[in-house]
Amino acid sequence: MKWFLLLACLLPCILLPACVGTTDCEVALGNCNYFGPEMMNTRFDVVGQESLQQSGVLWLATDDELAVRWDTYRVFWKANKDTVCDFPNVVPAEEWNCQRCNYCDQWVTDPMERDSVNCGMFSLTGSPDESVGPAVISYKESMMSGGPEVIAQAGYLDGCPRAPNPSKFKPGENSTLRILAPYWSSYLTERDDLEKRSVPVESLGDFRQSPPVFVTPALVEKKVHVVDGTPQQSTHQMQLHEQTDPAGCTLATNPNCTVWHKWSVRSTTVDGRTIWDVNFSDRLRIGKVRVLRIGRTNPSTGIFIPEEPSIVRPSRILFLRGFDAGVNTVLNHPEERGQRCYADTPAANTPDGNIELTHCRQNLGDATPTGEPVYTVTPTFYSGAVLTWFAEFKLSEGADADLTTPCILAAAPNPTGCDYLDANIVLSIEFTIERV
After folding, report:
1. Contact predicate 434/285, CB 8 Å
2. CA distance 55 to 222
3. In this predicted structure, which of 170-174, 203-207, 296-300, 392-396 has the lowest mean pLDDT?
4. Who's near 408: CB < 8 A, 6+ residues apart?
5. Distance CA 298, CA 313 (A)
6. Which secondary structure element, helix H or strand E, spans residue 176, and what is its range?
7. DSSP codes of every residue in 145-197
8. How far is 37 from 40, CA to CA, in rounded Å?
9. d(CA 409, CA 74)
10. CA 152 – CA 166 distance, rounded (Å)
11. Could you please report the per-residue DSSP string of 257-313?
């Protein structure tokens, strides 16, 4: 379907020098004096978890749905091409010459809350079909050698903040999702730009022009992991924590020295909004936790030298809410005694320490986790608070960086075969993600 924008003069033509009656203009030909649509904070919301922090990578349960949302659908209009407008700023005194139309105002009942100024001279006409809203395309992990698939198509009002029925879909499998701007957007790119990104134009659906002349840029991109009955692993590089206990001690000289490596979700700011690097649906939880050696840092150059990942054995892991190194130490944090899981004893001969949050050993030396706490925790948050994870290494409690030689605690306070990590070793923490 072709989509047209209607120039509808609200006042008699004799009062408007630029008015030549009702005019249709085909946006694909570029003969309309407009800019937009400006779709602020375009995003994927998890249905039923709309407050979940936005992230670049998102982990979902297989039955989780995503909704396509945006905060504004604003189009800026000029009476003619020679009109000078200070967009996005528009004042009532400019009347019909400069207009800001936020079509999401259709869902706003209080006139004082509406964002539109001078809106009415131009209007979208016809039925709100797929040609005026954004499309969602998916690059499925199982089909990365092929082109994308259009998996959702939103009408131009569907994703507005108060719209009751946003476009929804289930990703179904691990994939990369993109929301594409409406095809009539003034922010169009040339067709060959899309081809350079290996996106076949023909796969984008019938709502494109035929033959397609323009294609549209991605407004947002998100990597999605979908967990069904088979758990998946989420791995994150850790940092050496600046604190030790006792202060300034080293594992090389003191088997009772405690050293920590830590990880917490990172964030960036985009257009004033906080975006985490990763987040998880509350229908998921962590099962097993492992710590891996992934390389070392050259002490002279600071360059990271990767290695084939190998298992190391922490003495325990801790997951603490609201940790602030300027206020807390690990050992004086109020949750240190509750939110911790010890590795099993070295005699159990499980190289990774068999640490599971669904069967957590809260005390040193617990042989089996039967009856121990079960934590429903994701890597990023617990009970609504952001977590910092610590892998603790204390030789006298069974920590071991080299599993080729057995760690024997019977020789305490100087255990044998319990090898220490030097300060240049780089670790990662691996969470096994499963459905609740």
Report:
1. yes
2. 8
3. 203-207
4. 346, 415, 416, 417, 418
5. 23
6. strand 175-180
7. TS--EEEEE--TTTTSTT-SS--EE---SSEEEEEEPPTT-SS-EEHHHHHHT
8. 9
9. 67
10. 11
11. -EEEEEEE--EEEETTEEEEEEEE-TTEEEEEEEEEEEEEE-TTT--EEEEEEEEEB
Check whether 355 has a pLDDT greater than 90: yes
Helix (H) or strand (E) holding 243: strand 239-245
Predicted local confidence at residue 38, as pLDDT: 86
Average pLDDT over residues 278-294: 96
Query: What six digits make up the tokens of 382?
Result: 């617990």
Band (pLDDT 50/70/90 cuts) for residue 77 is: confident
Residue 408 is classified by DSSP as B
What is the tens place of the pLDDT at every residue in 22-66?
233 344 444 457 777 888 999 999 999 999 999 999 999 999 999
Separation of alpha carbons 264 and 180, rounded Å = 31
In one-letter notation, the amino acid at residue 428 is: S
pLDDT confidence bin for 332, thresholds 50/70/90: very high
pLDDT score for 188:
42
Return the structure tokens found at 413.
């306070």
- Residue 366 has a CB neighbour count (10 Å cut-off) of 17
Q: Where residue 371 falls among pLDDT bands split at 50, 70, 90?
A: low
User: What does the alpha-carbon distance between residue 35 and residue 144 come to, in Å, rounded to a whole number?
Assistant: 34
Closest CA to 227 of 46, 44, 430, 58: 58
| Residue 432 CB-half CA count within 13 A | 12
3-class DSSP state for residue 240?
strand
Using left for φ > 0, alpha for ψ between -120 and 50, and beta otherwise, residue 149 falls in beta
Q: DSSP labels for 118-136?
A: STTSEEE-S---GGGS-EE
Containing 57, the helix (H) or strand (E) segment is strand 55-61
Identify the band that residue 86 occupies on the pLDDT scale cut at 50, 70 and 90: confident
How many helices (H) and strands (E) the chain has is answered by 1, 29
Asked, as a colleague might, if the bond just before 379 is cis with ω within 30 of 0, I would say no
Report the C-alpha gap between 390 and 119 in whole angstroms. Answer: 55
pLDDT of 67 above 90:
yes
Comparing CA positions, the residue from 57, 9, 1, 64 lying closest to residue 281 is 64
The number of residues making up the chain comes to: 436
